[in-house]
UniProtKB/TrEMBL annotation:
Catalytic reactions on record: an N-acyl-L-alpha-aminoacyl-tRNA + H2O = an N-acyl-L-amino acid + a tRNA + H(+)
Keywords from the named record: Cytoplasm, Hydrolase, RNA-binding, tRNA-binding
Annotated site residues (Discriminates between blocked and unblocked aminoacyl-tRNA) in this chain: N38
Compartmental location: Cytoplasm
Family: Belongs to the PTH family.
Residues of the active site: H48 (proton acceptor)
Record-level Gene Ontology MF annotations: peptidyl-tRNA hydrolase activity
Protein name, as recorded: Peptidyl-tRNA hydrolase
Stretches of the chain forming a coiled coil according to its record: none
Residue sites binding tRNA per the record: Y43, F94, N96, N142
NCBIfam families the UniProt entry points to: pth
Enzyme class: hydrolase
Protein encoded by which gene: pthB
């Protein structure tokens, strides 16, 4: 009777949610590349989602796709660049909860903060400027605040995509949740951010800074 009940449940309800997605126990990584953003079509083209866009660019190089992970609010794509194992990651939580799934993933994989690359929007850089650094303040960025809180450190690596500040007196939340100023310069910035993440993982932060900051 139990087998029949299970069969009927599969027919009418589909597989159990715990059976869907990648098994976290089978994931391996030397580096995590995390794109910050908000899920859903409403936010897809906004300034706050440039981290998502850069991860999409990373994946496009090899035709890889993100898949859900069982029991975790994130999607991942395992990549291999030479001998380096990389996990491209996009959370499916909202920005201010970004650290909630990332910290358990990093702990489960044994990935230290200095091997976590976070791609995010940066108000304090001119639009489309890319800068790389490790650690430092969050500068009011709620996604970074959540990561710092949950990881217990600021020592993760950042790929910062400049979006500039809004005009004086404008609402910052409205500004970051407004559509990006698309165009060739923006497309180049996203591609450069994706390249920067790969350079960090394969050649180290200093080499990546030398290459990217000279542009």
């Amino acid at each position: 009777m139990a087998a029949l009940t299970d069969f009927i449940a599969r027919i009418f309800c589909g597989p159990s949610p715990v059976q869907q997605g990648l098994d976290p126990a089978e994931l391996e990584a030397d580096w995590l590349i995390i794109g910050l953003g908000n899920p859903g079509a409403k936010y897809a083209a906004t300034r706050h989602n440039v981290g998502y866009m850069a991860v999409d660019d990373v994946l496009a190089q090899g035709g890889d796709v993100l898949e859900p992970v069982r029991g975790m609010d994130l999607e991942v794509a395992p990549l291999r660049w030479g001998d380096t194992r990389v996990l491209a990651v996009r959370t499916i939580t909202f920005m201010n909860l970004s650290g909630d799934p990332i910290a358990p993933l990093a702990r489960a994989l044994g990935v230290a903060a200095d091997h976590i690359i976070v791609i995010h929007d940066e108000l304090d850089l001119p639009a489309n400027k890319i800068r790389l650094k490790q650690g430092g303040n969050e500068n009011g960025h709620n996604g970074l605040k959540s990561l710092t809180h949950n990881l217990g450190t600021r020592d993760y690596v950042r790929v910062r995509i400049g979006i500039a500040r809004p005009p004086k007196g404008s609402s910052i939340p409205d500004y970051v949740l407004a559509p990006v100023d698309a165009g060739p310069g923006f497309d180049t910035a996203i591609a450069t951010a994706a390249e920067a993440a790969q350079l960090i993982a394969t050649q180290g932060l200093v080499q990546a800074q030398n290459r990217i900051h000279s542009r």
